[in-house]
Amino acid sequence: MNTIRWGMIGCGSVTELKSGPAFNKVLNSKLMAVMRRDAQKVKDYAHRHQVPYYFTDANELIHHPEVDAVYIATPPKYHEEYALAAMQAGKPVYVEKPMALDVAACLRMQAFSKKSGVKMVIAHYRRALPLFIEVKKMLASNTIGKINEVRIEMLKPAGANLNPNDNWRIDPKVAGAGYFYDLAPHQLDLLFYFFGKAIAYEGVSSNQAGLYEAEDTVTGTMLLEKDIQFKGDWCFCAAEGQDKDVFEIIGSEGKISFPVFGHDITLEQGGVSKIIHFDPPMHNQQNLIAQIVPYFLGTGTNPCSAEDALQSMRVMENFVYAKNK
Fold first, then answer.
1. Mind listing the domains of the chain with CATH numbers?
2. Which helix (H) or strand (E) is 314 found in, with range?
């Protein structure tokens, strides 16, 4: 085999630009089939993106002879079911973040992958984007000296679509824990990508606004390797106009800050600020897919393993649910 022929389960908004088209732009990669329960929508997606095959049944896609690997782009509730089905068919999987609904499901997925030898990658694609690679390089070269503290702050208004029937991200039974489980995996994965493992962590969560069932406010602290302290604050019921997305790295000789969902790094040293701009990629996941394909073909390494993803899953589950255990 010298080309990975992909089947994609789920054709939601994330696949329209961030991921779907990227499979055909990566060397030795081709999107061959898509699946969605809605027959008209999956047909429309396939026609618009020139995908040869489309299905309303995931098993038909998984077992199709022209599908070598499966990308799972559904809400988290279904990640485990489809990942296990694909791996049982001997086909490697690329799973959207968060890896699954909870840590227990992640561990079952990881265990099956290890036992069967079928490969699995998790879609923490920001670790493959130029902005975050540059931050990692700056840290490796001690640009701001010894790292003492890291802070994440995210404020977002509740928004207009607060019906769980239309917005799965705020339904804990489908998403895990609301917008926190949707957005924090990107931020926390970068934290571990930059600084290694968490030594200890604790957090609290609550539903401050009462607009839906899931938690809307989360605070957590961690001690990372090399005695680096971390604090994170997430509020998804902030006032209109109070949006904030800040990832700060505080060192003995300066500070690096950037928005995880933005395009600029700010470097502060000696009272002087320097902004480094990065143009947004057309397809956010293309760089990571370009690393996954060689891994699936047996010529590369896993760019984001189940163990990598479990770090953020364990921390998020602790921050949100520790009070209930």
1. 4-125+284-303 (3.40.50.720), 130-280 (3.30.360.10)
2. helix 306-321
